[in-house]
Amino acid sequence: MDINVDNRANVTIASLDGRLDFEAADTAQVKLRELLGSASGKALVLDGASLSYVSSAGLRVFLTIAKEAKAAGVAVAVGALQPAVQQVFDISGFSKTKIIDIQSTVDDAVRAVTR
Amino acid sequence: MAISAAGSIVVRAEVAELGRLGGFLTAFWEAHDLPLADSMRFELSLEEVFINVVTHGIEGVAPPVGHDTHLVTMALALDGDRLEMVVEDHGQAFDPLGQPEVDTDAPIEDRGIGGLGIHLVKTLMQDVRYERTGDRNRLIMMGELTRS
User: How confident is the model at residue A2 (pLDDT cuts 50, 70, 90)?
Assistant: First the structure.
């Protein structure tokens, strides 16, 4: 999977492009962790529009990033998840327990972390 | 079961084989024109079960006689709108259905990810059964396809 980064004034938007499966998880986690580290107070939005697949290994990446962001005081939100991916988040309890802020669009996610 | 289509593949029990396994499922999907909306449920269930075998199941267990590596067999059988996916391995006896349920209500601080894979499989498939026959684990997953 590819991660494309759009650095804006007060938010970094990372577009997740492709499949977040067991094989892709480690590299994705390293890249997202780097983004968190270089965010220096900026909020982080994960754009899920091109994320076509996620397994429990992929959820682990979201969970880890959410925990580390919380510890670092960085606001994180996810936007525009595809329905099948959203379903995996839902049945894992990620949505109802607000493990990570999930918004229906990227714009909503940006608003959620910059308000 | 009136099987209208079937297929199977044998792969080495290695993470690097995940792509080949998923590719086989995708090819079956296309060959039989199955609904795209259902493909991720099966792909995900297959990945969770296969990765469990590769990362835990075969640990400390010698490969079967005559082989220098562990193998995993995956078989598909289509019966109308029901697709059965069977995964077999020669690893340690492991009944994923006998494991404690994950707490999906737990807050982020307490949240590990262990057990989430099998929770996903049990939720996404209509029926999951486990059998141990001799030195073989057999996980039978059945999912209904959503036909329009």
Answer: very high
* A11 CB-near residues (< 8 Å, 6+ apart): A42, A43, A44, A45, A110, A113, A114
> Which residue is closest to A99 within chain B, CA to CA?
B108
Q: Please give the CATH topology (third level) of the domain spanning B5-144.
A: Heat Shock Protein 90 (3.30.565)
**How far apart, in whole angstroms, are the C-alpha atoms of residue B60 and residue B106?**
33
- Across the interface, do A96 and B119 touch by the CB < 8 Å criterion? no
Q: Whole-model pTM above 0.80?
A: yes
- Other CB atoms within a 10 A radius of the CB of residue B62 amount to 9
The nearest CA of chain A is from the CA of B119 a distance in Å of 8
| A105: its two tokens | 């669009």
Domains in chain A, please, with CATH? Answer: 2-104 (3.30.750.24)
